[in-house]
Amino acid sequence: MDKELLKKIVCDTIDANKEKIYAIGRSIYEKPELGYKEVFASETVKKTFDELGLKYEDGLAVTGIKAKLKDDAAGPNIAIMGELDAVVCPDHPNADPVTGAAHCCGHFAQTAAMLAAAIGLNAVKDEISGGNITFLSTPAEECVELEWRKGLIADGKLKYLGGKQELIRTGVFDDIDMAMMVHGTNFDDNINCSAPNVGFIAKNVKFIGKEAHAGFAPWDGANALNAASLALMAINSIRETLKDQDCIRIHPIITKGGTLVNIVPNDVRMEMYVRGATIEAIKDANAKVNRAIRGCAYAIGCEVVIDDLPGYLPMSDDMNLAKVFEENAKQLYPEKNVVHVKEVGGASGDVGDVQAIMPCIQGGVGGFINDFHSKHFQPGDEELIYIVPAKLMACTAIDLLADDAAKAKEIIANFDSPYNCKNYDAIWKDIMGK
Known about the structure:
Layout: H1 3-16, H2 18-30, H3 39-52, E1 56-60, E2 64-68, E3 77-83, E4 87-88, E5 101-102, H4 107-122, E6 132-138, H5 146-154, H6 163-169, E7 178-184, E8 190-194, E9 199-208, H7 224-237, E10 249-256, E11 267-276, H8 279-300, E12 303-312, H9 319-332, E13 337-340, H10 351-357, E14 360-365, E15 368-369, E16 378-379, H11 382-414, H12 424-432
Parallel strand pairs: 3-6, 3-7, 7-14, 8-13
Antiparallel strand pairs: 1-2, 2-6, 4-5, 8-14, 9-11, 9-12, 10-11, 15-16
Helix pairs in contact: 1-4, 1-11, 2-4, 2-11, 3-4, 4-11, 7-8, 9-11
């Protein structure tokens, strides 16, 4: 069947199922769950796959789910991804009253759009040849609850903080050749086809001082809060040594400032990210931050334990794959501004780790209102947030597999990276110096 006719059938099928797709998105939005705890969202995905007759694997990286369009198909395998988790935003009107979780980053829409693409492509599965399409629900993109996730790592249940990282580590991506997803934006007139963003190292820091009575004999103590406060100032003082083009962002918070007001603080803890546009920039900035922290602890007479954790790799879209996505955006939505963002953004995502090992893009489509990760964030135009991404990804997949997957094979052949699924761990061992 002609690929343009296939695209029309897919898009018409998605349109015919709009209300169902909207209901899926709304239901997940109303039940926000944090990473590795996305039980309701995962059950919703599995229910939809069951209705479509798609076989799936579940329990991947705790809550991830993987379904293939065709049971057995030779040729390139293209993943269409959607994220499951929420962020912590307790002041949001739809926040979970217990956990503070709220869908302020649009992941509920990604999951619904991934399922919408599955609904559309399932209508033409017998006509798809040249390869296969995998629908992948990925957990835990938001790097939150670090202490809790460190506990899972200590128990051997995880090695990495992010869901896609765990899916890479556990072999879920081994039979996937390229991947795509769409993240929401609040720019309704634009469709983004590519956008570079920073990666990061996550850090937990514990300052260990000596307790003493804060009024009676403070001179007998070593104030860990003073050490942490100095460290904040020292980190600020090194910012002028960081190059503009490296897009370094360092943002610490104090998560524990002491125990009682009349006891000299002896246990003070901080969390922070060190972000940057390249792996080398992140390593350089992180070394400077660690040096500043250790110096401040020494100055006050405290000890310090710095626990560096693998964050996410910088995001870099495959431009050959982005071109196919762009062509479909222009064809389907000629009224939109179809753009490639040039400026490096300050956000991060574990899709960057996928982009390091295979051709992968994260497009961007509007439909959301107000700032992401804020209490004012709201879903807006449901056509934009659910339907447009689904059609773009499904039609891109059809183009990639047309003519015996000629375009997919070309993109795979031209992908230039020293990394792959098998040596992924080596990337982070190098960054962490381990």
